[in-house]
Design brief:
This protein is α+β, with helices and mostly antiparallel strands. The protein is built from 5 helices and 8 strands, in the order H-E-E-H-E-E-H-E-E-E-E-H-H.
């Protein structure tokens, strides 16, 4: 198989503590192994890279030998918030967010940001005080506290780490983009992640 054909095979990169960091193409993954920056714990069965002096099995999962600090709270940005709150739509309607005020499913165009404690009452734009909501639910709540309008949260607020955001990116790619997660990755990033709350370590 040519190196071009091998480009369709991806490698899951784990931190030294075995938590997912990213998805890589095979070239940097092999370079990390050859330079002893990482080691492989799973391979793409039957796929090899050939050179004049060696034959290397194509890595499916590699582990970095040195820990990278990725457990700081992620910056609160619009992009990170969309990633953190993304969840798989069981009905495949591309409604990948849940309204925190009514519990209904939303597509990206329906999403608005709601301040749980209104800004007019000192509420901050932060992980602890922002929830996604339908515009109609957001308007109904207005600048009131939840209890004042008979509402309650249907989705807990998140404070994801940088590692959590990276895991979500991988899940979005393979569950939102239609690609199939390689079997060798399932011990590290599978369906169980959908039910695991994102939280600081």
């Amino acid at each position: 198989m040519s190196t071009k054909d091998l480009d369709k095979f991806s490698t899951l990169v784990l931190n030294a503590d075995y938590r997912p960091m990213m998805v890589s193409t095979w070239r940097p993954a092999v370079e990390d192994i050859m330079s002893d920056k990482a080691y492989a714990i799973a391979h793409h069965e039957g796929q090899f890279i050939h050179s004049e002096k060696m034959k290397i099995e194509l890595p499916s999962v590699i582990v970095r030998r040195h820990q990278t600090d990725m457990y700081r709270t992620a910056s609160f940005t619009r992009k990170n918030a969309f990633i953190a709150y993304w969840c798989k739509d069981p009905d495949n309607r591309n409604k990948n967010w849940v309204c925190g005020l009514c519990g209904g499913r939303m597509g990206m165009s329906e999403v608005t940001f709601d301040h749980i404690i209104p800004r007019s009452k000192g509420g901050k734009t932060s992980w602890d005080n922002i929830i996604f909501a339908h515009s109609s639910c957001n308007c109904r709540k207005g600048d009131k506290y939840l209890h004042e309008v008979g509402m309650h949260l249907h989705v807990p607020t998140l404070r994801p780490s940088e590692s959590d955001i990276n895991i979500q990116k991988i899940l979005i790619r393979f569950n939102g983009g239609g690609e199939v997660i390689p079997e060798s990755w399932l011990d590290f990033i599978g369906d169980s992640y959908w039910n695991t709350p994102l939280a600081d370590d």
